[in-house]
Amino acid sequence: MAPDGRSARRYAVRHVFARIGVYALAVVAALFCATPFLWSVITAFKLNRDLVDTENNPFVYNLPPTADHVLYLFTDTSFTRFVLNTLWVGALVVAITLALALPAAYSLARLDRPWAGWMGVTIFFVYLVPPSLLFLSLSRLVVELGLQDSTWSLVLVYPTITVPVSVWLLMGFLKAIPRDIEEQAMVDGYSRVGAFLRAVAPLAFPGIVAVVVFAFTLTASEFIYALAFVSPTAQKVISTGVPTELVRGDVFFWQSLQAATVIVAVPIAFVFNLFLDRFIAGFTMGAVKS
């Protein structure tokens, strides 16, 4: 075989082994990252005796599994109500966030004003203010409006967290869309609003998806405001309802806690992966152009 042929063959072999190594490392990394989730699934169906025995393997069923702890979550706690409250609050907050963030981001990204740059930075800085510094003043506002101990208080307060960062993300994405598109639409007879809705908004869909996922996830995981503003069990969301119902003093309903974690994580992971490409596009375009 000619020297060039042997070199090409060695290169091909090295290339194959390199790809095998990359895939092997990816599988190992995926299993490592999935270990906490797999442990939660296994723990949710374990008996108490299997869980507390330190000699038992935590990743296998040393005793026969049981579904009692999962059933307890639905029959003896208000978990279903927590889920519904979370969906209700999250949907309203996402709608309010889009209604406020889209026009604000479009104005800052498209309208040439000398204050647009520092205004966008100022809006983002609002997101960096810790909630622990604001909940006392916001609680005064909630009480004055008569929304205490109601999910409506969370609908009122959560946009203060989601809107600033959403404006920042959408600004970066809208800047990546050529102005010529909407200008052509306006030449065809559309108003600026019509050009935005018909020409710009469809192209900005990945950024909108990123904002929706981010806003809902942030709303569902927020703890301080939900704990400070809502006390009745029937009005609680998942972030506060699950720990207050399943952690009672020094008694932890550990299997039910893990079951709640899995039940909440699976739908979110499914939706996230369904829109993964658009979600990544929205974040990366915003990061590059901001």
UniProtKB/TrEMBL annotation:
Coiled-coil regions listed in the entry: none
Cellular compartments annotated: Cell membrane
Pfam families reported for this sequence: BPD_transp_1
Keywords noted in UniProt: Cell membrane, Membrane, Transmembrane, Transmembrane helix, Transport
Residues that span the membrane, as ranges: 20-42, 87-108, 115-136, 156-174, 195-218, 252-276
Membrane-topology descriptor: Multi-pass membrane protein
PROSITE patterns: ABC_TM1
Domain ABC transmembrane type-1 residues, every copy: 83-275
Biological processes, Gene Ontology terms: transmembrane transport
GO cellular component: plasma membrane
Main location: membrane
Stated family: Belongs to the binding-protein-dependent transport system permease family.
Alphabetized PANTHER family for the sequence: INNER MEMBRANE ABC TRANSPORTER PERMEASE PROTEIN YCJP, MALTOSE TRANSPORT SYSTEM PERMEASE-RELATED
The protein's name in its UniProt record: Carbohydrate ABC transporter permease
Organism: Bailinhaonella thermotolerans
